[in-house]
Amino acid sequence: MNTDKPYAAEIPATGSIKRAGTVMVILCAVLTMAWIVTHKKSHHPGPQTAASRAVSMCEQAVRRTASHPASVSFSEFGSQPPTKMQDGSYQDRMAFEEKDALGDSIAKEAICTVKDGKLQSFKEPKP
């Protein structure tokens, strides 16, 4: 066994191996871009955008009115997706928890109505 040469130097990289590696890298990049484009959410205004805007506005209203805004956490359980009303507004009913001054969690619910990107009504029904 010859110890003056490293093992990797004994196997020269040919041009075809380098080209194959380059092609694989390009192919991976193209497939990644194609996946991103097909799975990207639409930026066109529509019901999905208006509904998600209604959820966001309702969450902001809940935090604004909370005694301890940092303690508010929203729950998927008990919440409903926004409902499109006949007048074009969205009504969102969401469940959330807020901590009181003693640190105890209190389960609450909020009902918001959003129309034309503006919060029309906000209420927290009494349990």
Can you characterise this structure?
- There is one protein chain.
- The protein is an alpha+beta fold and 127 residues long.
- The chain folds into 2 domains: 7-39, no CATH class; 47-123.
- 35% of the residues lie in helices and 25% in strands.
- The protein is built from 2 helices and 5 strands.
- Strands 1, 2, 3, 4 and 5 form a 5-stranded antiparallel beta sheet that branches.
- Strand 4 and strand 5 (118-123) form a beta hairpin.
- It is elongated.
- 11% of the residues are buried.
- Residues 40-45 have low confidence and may be disordered.
Summarize the structure.
The protein has 127 residues and is α+β, with helices and mostly antiparallel strands.
